[in-house]
Amino acid sequence: MRKDVVVLAALTTVSTVVAAVLLVRQWKRRSEQRWRHAQRILRKFARECATPVPKLWEIADDLVAHMHAGLTSTESSLQMLPSCLPSLPTG
Hints:
The protein is mainly alpha-helical and 91 residues long. It has one domain (2-72). The protein has 2 helices and no strands. It has helices at 2-49, 53-72. The chain starts with a helix and ends in a 19-residue tail after the last helix. The model has no long low-confidence stretch (mean pLDDT 88).
């Protein structure tokens, strides 16, 4: 009778450990799948929202042109205040 109880306890312990391992493995697999899915969504979003480099250069050039126009006249859409500093501070 004592041997039967020990065997039953051992089988119960082993089956519980195996079930726990399987549940953890399944949870990890689902977690990895969700992570890969989220990465795919973010890559797609970044790809669709990316601004081409030539467009960025065009925007930068337009900003510089508007800044120069704002310093030379008052009709510019970007108002600038002239400064008398010979150079920018370095510290």
